[in-house]
Write a structure and sequence with these properties.
heterodimer, A: 497 residues, mainly beta, six-stranded antiparallel sheet, 5% helix, B: 263 residues, mainly alpha, two-stranded antiparallel sheet
Amino acid sequence: MKSLLVCALLGGLMFQEQEIPHFQGAYISGLYGGTGWFSRHADLNRDGQMDLLLPERIMLQRDKQYPVELHIPLPDLPDGAVLDVWDDRIYIKHNEGIRCIQWTEGTWLTVLDQTLDWQGRVPKNSVAMGTLPKPELGRFLHDINADNQPELIEVTESALWAYTLLDRQYELGLMAPIIPPTTLSPRTAIQLWPDVDRHFAYPVREMRANLVLEGDEAILIQRQKLPEQLMQYTVTRYALNIETGTAKPSGEVWSTQAVPNTMSLRHLNNDGILDLVGIQQELSSASALPAFIRTHSTSIDGGKSFHSVRARVFPGFIGHTWFVDVNHDGRQDRIVESPQIFDQGPRETITSMLTRKKIGHSLSVYMQGETAFDANPAYSLKFTMDLSEPPIQSGPLFNQYIRGYRVSLLGDFDGDGWNEVAVQAKENLLELFNLNSGELVGSIPLKPNMRWTVGDVNADGLSDICVSAGIDWDNIGLLLPGEKLPTTVYFSLGNQP
Amino acid sequence: MMGRIWTAYLVEWSKSLRLKRSYLWLLLVALAIGCSPFLRPVVGDSVGDYGFIAYVTPLAMNVLGFFLVLAFTAGLISTEMASGTIRMVLTRPIHRWEWVVAKLMAGLTYALIMMTLVSILSWAIVWVLGDLSGVTYGGELLSSHGEMVSAYTFGFFLSFFPIAAGVAFALAISTLTRSPISSVMATVGLWLALDFLKTPLGIDAYIFTTYLEMPWQHFADRCDGIATQESKDILHLLLCSGTTFILALFVAITSITRRDFSR
């Protein structure tokens, strides 16, 4: 309440609140930064404002909000359809073919409805008990030949397939056998002794690779296991040509050094080199209690050198995200979070676990420079998180905390090019702090058992806050199957005097 | 005055040395440290084993050792009162407060011996069984042996303050009871009660026991390769320990000087 008063008196970030039914907001897209959406942005009615595509409806934007009267249901879709969007057109992939629709003059116009023989089947959604299979959002459109007409992409066990538009009909334009063959899974190996572990084993074959499409290139990232818990990434690029229907290797095959098998490939900057990031967790050698030491390792030179930061964490502590571009310079900065409970010695830690309802939380930001990460954190903030109950009782607020739902550095709410820190230190209040000065710049009251995420819902360049109900196990039976509670979006209006 | 206190201290310390339990408790701590490698193995594999020292020291010095130091000090005056020997002591040409200070010095000496024993034994075990070549991670030397020794010395020095506060606290309780058993029970009981109530009451920052193990954190952080930050808690530690020490000593002196031992 005090913080609300301060904001009201001194000015600060202002938000416009709207409850949006059926909207689920954003979610943390992995721990390597970024926000994922249960919806997609597109200017569906060509008015220059970004609308939302959901699996069952579209929501048109007006005055930075999504009024309920502009929520338009999609036409009947085949079971298990997958939706993707290109400009103002919605493509619906289903088992029998492809359909393309467009919202024009207050009605749905079918632009294309074609049967297609897919190489594989369109996977059907998992069906929850008592519900019908629902359409879902997916990604199968990509413009390979830069003609502003998307190709339909399909990846099967054997190849990458691309269907291209010829005479208003999609036809198979490319079959690229670039997918590595499957091999017999090591998990198939059966154990004969002890006899209780003996079992029938199906000869499972598997292959793990990542396929990335960038322009007219397909990038295949393979991971090869090496002895001593090491591994090596190999990146192969293929030039895709729709006209000739071929995929040829382009450039040299790039391989990382042998690196620990906890490392994965990411883009942490725009230098064109794939970067390596990884987390290793081990028990603290110095603590009598099961405190974990988490080592964040990063290499932005292909594995030649690593920068590591270590932090002491709870067993099971995840944290919000590990990389965020906090100053919007195109380089992902490293975030290290650490609960401050294991830094008091074994006796005092046990006492705290049993009796303390508030624990300290430290957040450090290591900026990524031109060639390396800074050795020391540029920003170190400390908060006191109210858990309502001692950690030993593992209450809802504690669980939210260790899963990283109470701190976020993903949002730039005032559009100044620097992200703000959003912290739910108390159950009923979300506070926003300036990263540079540590000053409180805004706050939002929260009801009990609410979860929040950060993301730019209306794509206006200012991050917004989506607040939705967490799982209320006491009243979950009151919801119909598949029904979700509405999400309240706090649309940022930026700094207001 | 100083001469009288020093003489009284020597007398009190020699009395303590005659008690079997003084040695028994040191032996108990030594035994606990000696058995620790079974719980937390130390292996000579050219990887620094400072983690063992950071593991053992707070447990042996600030949990078991602190408990025994409290018990030792809590019996220093209450024993004299229970047996009535305090009357004979008070016939000596010494102020009552000087005698209390001498007792306090005996308690502090015992605490210092306990701390030294823990330090020597924990380092000796690693020296014999393990490795003391600095802390490395991924082949990179994060802290040299010298830095680890400095961090430990710093922890040892800082650790003395809350322990000294505990000694004064136990001595104060000792002056308020007439039986050594009830004195020990009251001291340990109050310690535990304080520890469990301080957070719900919101007074944890002002209780010296909060800072008992804190001095070792810098050393433990170095063992785990964590970048340590300067802690403002050091100031709190010194203030809380100092305040408790002075208050407890005041209570002990007041209690002894105002009490009528003729009845």
